[in-house]
Design brief:
The complex is a heterodimer of chains A (about 350) and B (about 650). Chain A is about 75% helix and about 0% strand. Chain A contains 14 helices and no strands. With about 650 residues, chain B is of the alpha+beta class. Helices cover about 25% and strands about 30% of the residues of chain B. Chain B is built from 13 helices and 31 strands. In chain B, the strands form 8 sheets. Chain B has a 7-stranded mixed β-sheet, covered by helices on one side. In chain B, β11 and β12 form a beta hairpin. In chain B, α3 runs parallel beside α4, α4 packs across α6 and α6 crosses α9. The longest helix of chain B is centred in the C-terminal third of the chain and has 23 residues. Chain B is globular, with a radius of gyration of 28 Å. The N and C termini of chain B lie far apart (about 75 Å). The chains are: A mainly alpha (about 350), B alpha+beta (about 650). At the A-B interface, α2, α3, α4, α6 and α7 of A face β23, β24, α8, β31 and α13 of B.
């Protein structure tokens, strides 16, 4: 059956919206990971400000002089507090660091590794939940995650290797060699900017391709209960190749929804002024943005699952579910997926 | 030989014009080192061939039997020069061989010697010396012996012929694409002082020093290329595919020029009651053409403020060069010629990246470097520090507060933090940077000998913060009077730091020796703190105790403002020389806060946060506010890297 991207995407998004607990769980994970270093940072700031009246200016706006003084005396965690944390600059800062593979503070590196590992571990359960499109208990989701744990670990090792090669070798080649060589005698910044933009486009095309392959590999691994990592990747690649329009369309729609979320946040993200309650308001707006981004993240998987199931005309199908999960899924889920195309 | 012939022919041809020009105004400077240069740029081979006639007069009280020249471009012929070795201390220098310069001095002759007079040929006597570090591989100082000494008051003329390969830019000199910025490019005499030649090697941390004179320079470039240079264009002629531009400038101590076919040329005029008018010429990159007026406005700000604070700008013209992207030639000053620096995408508001600060700063150098010709090798703070202070002041007077910006995605995409205001005192004076290096060295040390990597602390940061501290302590009229007197007495000469200190002392009418000992000759750290504050009820009243401490070794008289809950205030005066002091009050009301130096006169205090204490601190709220922002940033980072999860 031919897959069309827009229905697959709306279907996938619908699955995510019907599973808000997934977004909630991931949001809690992201928050929980940031809380321990946040407590340490809060203490460090509090200690530095002490009973100083400089706190008033730091509270009512941006006391930039205090911020620099604090950073000059702070540990590496404290030095990660920069003006880049204000509003939408946070998004630019992180996206730019990713695009340019800039060194990040240790707290970011460690937290990101924990978060990525956690999401990777939970992803079979999440994919299963989105695939059956029916409520599952936390135990079932964790059970699926556990069942697929070893296979996901193997896939994770391969993914880490490929992403590592992309972000270290390919990126270095593109931006340290190609960009530098291309622009070496360039004297017009605008031209150089467009060269860099083109290289970003090329690089993120590669990243997107790899990302799509590993996403589909995970989906196929879980939905079809595949045991071989290599076979899952091969199946994902075949699927993308045979359904290139749909796969690309779905991916682009998801990217567009991410851009939309980021764009809305750019407009509504509060700055640093306004005092204590404004800080909470900014935090809440920030959390809504985080939740929306997590929903977009899940929509990638949801729409990929929808595309796969639509291709084989078996909505809700999951081949092998541990325990009672298979019983809970709809009748159509028992329809056989064609033999691992 | 052909060059020499051309030089002589040109000299004869232009002699009347030059003479007329020279008579246009009374000399402002000793004009004891004048240069008549003919240079031809060949972009295809990236080479210049040139010849110069140097006329030098000995204005010291001692004779000399040699001439010492700076050959700055020899610093970039390989990685063995002192400059390159110093640069390598902050990281290895990886440059392809094609980037390096080549400089060949082909001959040096006495100008008045006949062509066959062997005594007139000084070439065989040339040798290289390394007076600063003895580096035998450094060839940035060349010496030639004279057949007879030049006595005080006597003059001598030499003709130097040389050729050079223009480097890919090093230290804000060189070429990229078809943009050329040619500075420190000609064999240039050092400065003879009563103690001997002052001709330092080229160092990575410091700049230049030379005598004043008249520069008459003929520059030949491909036809259609725009030229900007020190001075004003006094003639132009086309020949074949090239154009020769003649630039003349009196009473300056250097000459730089630039050329490119890509410059867009804009002009404007500065006019201000009480100050001489100045014609401004802007050579701007076409992609920045929309920013032309911002460059001119900044130029006007500098000419207006520096002119009225210190003394008028006498040259009548100023060329502002907007350097080509990644040329690394921006933010530099030469007599009547400066380079700015901006980006394609910039904020509408003034930020660190918009052209205002750099143009004001470099235009300000026309006063503190150009007119007051201090020794940048030895006392870099005299031009950079005073100028950084004055730049910050001019910006505060002429512009609304600047805001912070940052560039992302390879440095191309700006983001303006509209609610992060930059202030003159802490940001443009670079207090934030001074804190990091307060004890690295002393301001009075010779700049080229200061600890590697610390030049910014002592050339820029500390003197700016130091002078602003004096302004807040003694008042602007005192500092302005002292600096204008320094400007007056040091104009077109080579003043020593003592001139600044003496004028500050005199203008203030008080003994500043302790302050200078701590901040100029020493590296005292100032850090006053309120370490304890309590207000306890006792017999219907409140006993308030505050402990003030001097945590650093620097001593400075400070005010202490005590504020009570009913709004009453007490201002105490503390000489600040004790290590601690306790304030005790018994009143009907509790204390609210104690602040040391509430007006923040002592900008040199490296830790201002501990200067105050209140019984109703809001630090936990402030900490939470910034932590909440940081959390969202960290969560966003997780999501960005979670792309792979």
């Amino acid at each position: 059956m031919k897959v069309r991207p827009l229905p697959a995407w709306t279907n996938g998004l619908g699955r995510v919206l019907r599973a808000p607990a997934l977004v909630l769980v991931l949001w809690i994970c992201s928050l929980a990971i940031t809380i321990p270093p946040a407590i340490a940072l809060n203490d460090a700031i509090g200690r530095h400000l002490g009973s100083s009246m400089e706190a008033d200016a730091a509270l009512d706006g941006t006391n930039y002089d205090w911020l620099q003084e604090f950073r000059a005396q702070a540990s590496s965690l404290g030095r990660s507090l920069r003006t880049d944390v204000i509003g939408f600059a946070a998004v630019l800062d992180n996206a730019s660091a990713l695009a340019d593979v800039n060194f990040r503070p240790m707290v970011v590196v460690v937290s990101a590794m924990v978060f990525a590992s956690l999401v990777w571990f939970l992803s079979p359960g999440i994919i299963c939940r989105l695939a059956v499109d029916t409520p599952l208990g936390a135990g079932s989701i964790l059970g699926v995650a556990g069942t697929f744990g070893f296979r996901m670990a193997k896939l994770g090792v391969v993914a880490a290797g490929v992403y590592g090669a992309l972000f270290l070798s390919v990126h270095a080649w593109l931006f340290d060699e190609v960009f530098d060589r291309t622009t070496r005698d360039m004297t017009v910044e605008r031209t150089a900017f467009f060269v860099r933009l083109a290289l970003y486009g090329l690089f993120f095309l590669l990243v997107a391709a790899v990302n799509a392959v590993f996403d589909f590999a995970r989906v196929r691994l879980v939905v079809e209960d595949r045991r071989s990592t290599v076979a899952s990747i091969a199946a994902a690649t075949r699927f993308i190749r045979n359904n290139a329009g749909a796969a690309c369309g779905v991916y682009l729609l998801n990217v567009a929804s991410f851009v939309l979320v980021a764009g809305v946040y750019a407009v509504v993200a509060p700055g640093a002024g306004g005092g204590y309650w404004n800080a909470w308001y900014a935090f809440i707006v920030g959390q809504l943005y985080v939740a929306a981004r997590l929903a977009v993240k899940l929509a990638f998987w949801g729409s990929e699952i929808a595309a796969l199931q639509a291709r084989f005309d078996c909505p809700g199908f999951v081949r092998a579910l541990p325990g009672t999960i298979g019983v809970e899924v709809s009748a159509s889920s028992s329809s056989p997926l064609p033999q691992r195309p | 030989m052909r060059l020499r012939g051309a030089l002589i022919a040109c000299a004869l041809l232009w002699a009347p014009a030059a003479s007329a020009f020279a008579q246009s105004a009374a000399p402002l400077s000793p004009r004891n080192a004048s240069y008549k240069i003919v240079v031809n740029l060949e972009p295809r081979t990236r080479t210049i061939t040139a010849s110069e006639v140097i006329t030098w007069r000995n204005i010291t009280h001692v004779s000399t039997s040699e001439l010492q020249f700076h050959l700055y471009w020899n610093a970039w012929v390989d990685t063995k020069s002192t400059l390159m070795r110093e640069s390598a201390r902050s990281g290895p220098v990886h440059r392809p061989p094609g980037d390096f310069a080549r400089l060949s001095v082909d001959s040096i002759r006495l100008a008045n010697a006949g062509p066959d007079d062997p005594a007139g040929d000084l070439t065989p006597t040339r040798r290289f010396i390394a007076p600063d570090d003895g580096n035998a591989d450094d060839k940035t100082v060349m010496v030639v012996s004279l057949p007879r000494p030049v006595a005080p008051g006597e003059s001598t003329s030499v003709v130097v012929k040389w050729s050079a390969r223009v480097p890919r830019t090093f230290d804000r000199t060189g070429t990229i694409g078809n943009y050329y910025f040619i500075a420190q490019w000609f064999p240039k005499l050092g400065v003879l002082e009563d103690t001997g030649w002052n001709c330092h090697q080229f160092h990575s941390q410091t700049e230049f020093f030379s005598d004043y004179g008249v520069y008459d320079v003929e520059i030949t470039v491909p036809r259609g290329w725009v030229v900007g240079a020190t001075g004003v264009e006094a003639g132009r002629s086309d020949s074949g595919g090239v154009t020769t531009h003649r630039y003349v400038q009196e009473d300056v101590h250097d000459f730089a020029w630039t050329t490119s076919p890509d410059f867009a040329v804009r002009t404007a005029r500065f006019e201000e009651a009480g100050l001489p008018p100045v014609d401004m010429r802007l050579l701007i990159q076409p992609e920045h053409a929309g920013q032309a007026e911002r460059h001119f406005a900044a130029g006007r700000s500098a000419l207006r403020r520096y002119g009225s604070w210190f003394g008028p700008y006498p040259y009548g013209h100023l060329t502002i060069v907007d350097p080509a992207w990644q040329s690394d030639t921006g933010g530099m000053e030469y007599p009547t010629l400066i380079t700015g620096g901006t980006q394609w995408l910039i904020s509408r508001q003034m930020t660190y990246s918009t052209p205002e600060e750099v143009v004001i700063h470099e235009a300000g150098h026309q006063f503190w470097y150009g007119i007051v010709g201090s020794n940048e090798f030895e006392h870099a703070w005299m031009d950079e520090g005073i100028n950084t202070f004055a730049t910050a002041r001019a910006m505060a007077v002429d512009y609304p507060p600047a805001v912070l910006d940052r560039y992302y995605f390879g440095g191309f995409i700006p983001w303006t933090f509209s609610d992060v205001r930059l202030t003159r005192e802490t940001d443009y004076n670079r207090l934030w940077d001074y804190r990091l290096g307060a004890t690295e060295d002393t301001l009075s040390g010779l700049s080229y000998r200061q600890r590697p990597g610390t030049v910014r602390f002592f050339a820029y940061d500390k003197p700016a913060v130091w002078l602003n501290t004096l302004e807040r302590w003694l008042g602007w009229p005192v500092v302005q009077q002292a600096l204008s007197a320094t400007f007056r007495d040091g104009a077109f000469g080579h003043p020593s730091p003592e001139l600044v200190l003496d004028h500050l002392q005199r203008a203030s009418g008080r003994d500043l020796s302790q302050f200078f000992d701590q901040t100029y000759r020493g590296s005292a750290v100032f850090d006053y703190a309120v370490t304890e504050l309590s207000s306890e009820a006792r017999d219907g009243q409140f006993e308030t105790r505050a402990v003030l401490r001097r945590l650093g070794d620097g001593v400075f008289p400070v005010e202490v403002l005590v504020t009570f809950e009913n709004g009453d205030t007490i201002t105490e005066h503390w000489t600040g020389d004790e290590r601690w002091r306790e304030l005790v009050y018994t009143r009907r009301t509790r204390v609210r806060s104690v602040v040391i130096d509430p007006q923040r006169q002592l900008l040199l205090d490296v830790n201002f946060t501990n200067n105050s204490r209140t019984l109703a601190p809001r630090s936990s709220q402030a900490a939470r506010k910034w932590t909440l922002k940081w959390m969202v940033w960290l969560q966003d980072a997780l999501l960005s890297w979670g792309l792979f999860a």
